[in-house]
Amino acid sequence: MTKAPLTILLAGPRGFCAGVERAVQIVERSLDRFGAPVYVRHEIVHNRFVVETLERKGAIFVEELDAVPPGAPVVFSAHGVPKRVPAEAERRRLIYLDATCPLVSKVHRETERHYAQGRRVVLIGHAGHPEVIGTMGQLPPGAVLLVQTPADVARLEVAADEPIAYVTQTTLSIDDTLAIVAALQQRFPQIDGPKRDDICYATTNRQQAVKAIARRVDRLLVVGAPNSSNSLRLVEVARQSGCDKAALIGRAAEIDWSFLAGAARLGLTAGASAPEALVEEVVEACRNRYDVALEEVAVTREEVRFNLPRALLSVA
User: Fold this and answer.
1) Which of 3.40.50.11270, 3.40.1110.10, 1.10.10.10, 3.30.565.10 would CATH assign to domain 18-101?
2) What is the number of alpha carbons within 13 Å of residue 308 lying toward its C-beta?
3) Catalytic one among 52, 88, 131, 254?
């Protein structure tokens, strides 16, 4: 039986970013150095495939440090942690390694700098996300105000003459964030913001790549986890940019083939915490049903690399 043709446009860049690669390497090298088990506070990145792969190698994932035995090694996730977490690790004399993405750490430093200079800090982000919890946890309770929409800006209880600054979660939609920043600047003309965008290069690049293919495809699939902020934003960006039939999947097994019925061109990308192996898995699943032609559509090349903690540099 003749297979129907399907052209897959692969968005580039896609998948693992430098911060995720660094975080995964920190867990792997910690296992090499200390042996199993190595504990990890929270999912190292938001992807079950990555987490389960590390579990098979000897990582144990926990939500809080009270689940870590005395003296055991523990890694903090790429999303960052409140200051109370390393303080508790030191109090309990745990061996800890911080896998916080350096770009998230930059936001932490900005938050602390604004606070030290007497400014009220507004964080643009999603309530409950680990990165937001970590950023807000750099300062005393109540020192950081969270806004999620432009409407939230109008409800901020800040005096007109109070010094104020904003920072952002790194994995947000660029366009949505610009709207919130505009609302902040309109209400607080004196507001201080980052000299460079806090939204990370990888989030920006992956969103731009989706925009480049959205109007050229009939359907678009984003490989990523449902708790991955940057992956969810890619689905939103696709729908806002011309492909209203966009969906998130974790693995090829989750593809709803009826969703692809009648499609001649499929866009495919992956969130920053999804490995390329999962993209290849989707392509192979499509080959089983379609006569597939691949087209790579790259908007830029990424050459960013982040150093590992010094304690792990000597581990082969």
Assistant:
1) 3.40.50.11270
2) 18
3) 131
